[in-house]
Specification:
7-stranded mixed beta sheet
Length: 661
């Protein structure tokens, strides 16, 4: 036994399955793409964009921080003008330290690794001042290559309470955003200068816990440059700043002058302004004292977080329209920016978002492309199947050469609209056919059956002659309905074989066909004022039958002893063939439906001429197929006999010989 054929999936069922597959592919691809982009952000260059977003977010989310416990003694331009060219004698630094006895800790941000043979006693004076103060931190410099350390002179280093390196590590764009609080050198831990100052005070705050590996910590800058309290070096040295101003304060001594080259760009720098290195140390010290840093997840977690907005958009876009999908993408972008700002301001957390933004922005066009392409390909396949099914009945969609080579959305939607129009036309034709079969064709057959049944009833039988006449009338009506319907269907479906046709000759022949019928009712059919020839391109058989329908219609509705006038005149690039009768006319309301199938005027009026309601519909189809138009002029007034005039307007043929085959 043969296996039953598997039923083909419906249009929407197949399309829905294809869309689900496309959605799954787009979702997986965009999540993998976004995660990979985030994880390898440094290699792909996205770090620069992340840095730009970070700087803007930090500047917008910065919170006021009390910086009163840190003071900067600045080696500024005015101090250099007053004390002389830089570098100064180290004895001056010793005198300065004597002015800061009440400071909690003093950080001397000056490289003191070389001897000064001109003033050999200055180093001893400075070492004694450092030892006497007891809470001074001196800087180290970590060599970039190898494990070397540039340290202060041993005499000074031994007097200092702590040593800490002052190296800074800018990002790829040269901006200082973080510090490394400690590192390993020669197997030993070396603290950052800020960490060393934190631990230098007698009641030092808890130092940063040692991690397995040193890592960068993002600085929550307290503000724009010159945010801390700054005193000029010369004024402090001259005793113009009272010692109480430094009581229980962390004091940083460093260069501030424009020509000393110790200034760097930071996230809060504006209009090219840089921040002095000593102030960057002050920000690092402030964070170290409060153990307050901007946290950032690792690469793996950052990549995972970057994919979550993409997943959200993919899930919601699956059921949203293109307009709402676009609005959703914009809303998710806004939420990402707002969420990052909130995390930065209230939780001191920064999540790099460039990869996520790129993923969100690309998800909308990628999903629109794939869903649209899937829908259009499915429509193309359905159109091909429909054409193959209709080709057997010679009813395929009309070829469109421009659309066949045009894969754009507009061209393919145009084909879809054409198919929809064809389907609607086919549905209308089917409904009209059903109406024709269920009503118009059944009516005369039912009448014949009623006559035969009536003939069997005693006392109701008609004379045989009358019975045969009635059956003959109903049979002829049935044949007329079938013939007219078939002619109309063929005219709608067929392709016009255009040949040169002379309207004058065609109308004369048609008038001759109806001469006998007109003579029986004493109706004159005249064809006057016509040119010698009126050439058009068309099907002679269809045009002759269309004109014949108009003549037949005019004879039906014309009173006896009246006239029907036919004319052909030139109107620009067209020939106009008209036929006027002297009947009762047609009202404006009736004219609107006159060319509709199965529509007859005044069908219920007694003695109204019989008909099928298909003749004028056939005429309209034929004229439109020939690129023309049909119209009528009529006034419903039987007394005046003004009647109705039909006008056929057809394109004129200038050179009939060139169009002949």
């Amino acid at each position: 036994m043969a296996r039953p054929a598997t039923p083909k999936k419906g249009f929407w069922g197949g399309l829905e399955r294809r869309i689900r597959v496309e959605w799954l592919i787009v979702t997986i691809f965009m999540m993998v793409f976004t995660g990979t982009l985030s994880y390898f952000g440094e290699a792909t260059g996205l770090a620069r964009l992340d840095h730009a977003f970070y700087d803007k977010t930090l500047a917008a989310a910065i919170r006021p921080i009390s910086t009163g416990n840190i003071v900067i003694v600045a080696i500024d331009d005015n101090s250099i003008d007053e004390l002389g060219y830089w570098p100064w004698r180290r004895a001056l630094h010793a005198q300065l330290l004597a002015r800061l006895p009440q400071a909690r800790a003093v950080g001397l941000d000056l490289v003191l690794s070389d001897l000064n043979p001109a003033y050999p006693d200055d180093d001893k004076q400075l070492a004694e001042a450092i030892r006497r103060h007891g809470r001074v931190v001196l800087p180290l410099i970590l060599e970039e290559s190898g494990d070397g350390i540039i340290a202060p002179l041993p005499l000074l280093a031994s007097a200092a309470k702590r040593l800490g390196y002052i190296n800074i590590y800018p990002d790829g764009d040269g901006v200082i955003r973080s510090i490394v609080p400690w590192q390993f050198r020669d197997g030993q831990r070396v603290d950052h200068f800020a960490t060393a100052m934190n631990a230098a005070a007698d009641d030092a705050a808890r130092p940063i816990a040692q991690q397995d590996k040193p890592r960068s910590l993002l600085l929550p800058y307290a503000g724009t440059p010159a945010h801390f309290t700054v005193y000029p070096y010369a004024r402090v040295l001259a005793g113009q700043i009272p010692a109480s101003a430094f009581q229980d304060k962390y004091v940083l001594i460093g260069s501030w002058g424009s020509g000393l080259g110790d200034a760097f760009p930071t996230p809060l720098s504006r209009h090219g302004a840089s921040m002095a290195g000593v102030e960057i140390l002050a920000n690092a010290l402030q964070s170290s004292l409060r153990d307050y840093w901007i946290a950032s997840p690792g690469r793996g977690l950052t990549a995972l977080l970057a994919t979550l907005p993409v997943l959200l958009i993919c899930i919601l876009m699956r059921r949203l329209s293109p307009r709402y999908s676009f609005l959703l993408a914009m809303a998710v972008l806004f939420i990402e920016f707002a969420g990052n700002w909130l995390l930065m301001r209230y939780a001191s957390v920064w999540v790099p978002l460039t990869a996520s933004i790129i993923g969100v922005v690309l998800t909308y066009p990628v999903w629109s492309w794939r869903s649209q392409e899937a829908a259009l390909q499915h429509i193309d396949r359905e159109l091909r199947d429909m054409n193959r099914n209709r080709a057997s009945s010679n009813d395929a969609l009309p070829a469109n050469d421009s659309a066949a080579h045009d894969g754009s959305l507009s061209a393919r939607v145009g084909l879809l609209h054409t198919a929809i129009a064809q389907l609607r036309q086919a549905q209308t034709a089917r409904e009209e056919t059903l109406q024709f079969l269920s009503h118009d064709m059944r009516a005369p057959q039912n009448s014949i059956l009623a006559l035969t049944e009536l003939q069997e009833l005693p006392g109701c039988a008609l004379p045989q002659t009358e019975l045969l006449r009635q059956i003959n009338n109903h049979a002829h009506k049935t044949l007329s309905l079938v013939e007219n319907f078939v002619h109309l269907a063929r005219a709608e479906a067929m392709t016009i074989n255009r040949q040169p046709v002379d309207l004058v000759d065609l109308l004369e022949q048609a008038c001759a066909d109806f001469w006998t019928q007109a003579r029986q009712r004493s109706i004159r059919v005249t064809f006057t004022d016509h040119p010698e020839a009126a050439w058009v391109a068309g099907d002679q058989g269809l045009l002759r039958r269309a004109w014949g329908n108009l003549l037949d219609n005019a004879l039906k509705y014309s009173p006896d002893h009246s006239a029907i006038i036919c004319r052909v005149v030139r109107d620009g690039a067209h020939w106009v063939a008209s036929i006027r009768d002297q009947g009762r006319g047609v009202s404006a309301e009736q004219q609107e439906a006159l060319f509709t199938r199965f529509t007859r005027v005044d069908e219920d009026i007694p003695l109204n001429p019989c008909g099928t309601g298909l003749g004028l519909a056939f005429v309209r189809v034929v004229v439109l197929k020939h690129g023309g138009a049909i119209g009528l002029e009529s006034e419903p007034d039987a007394a005046t006999g003004s009647g109705t005039e039909f006008k056929l307007r057809l394109p004129a043929l200038a050179d009939p010989d060139r169009h002949s085959t």
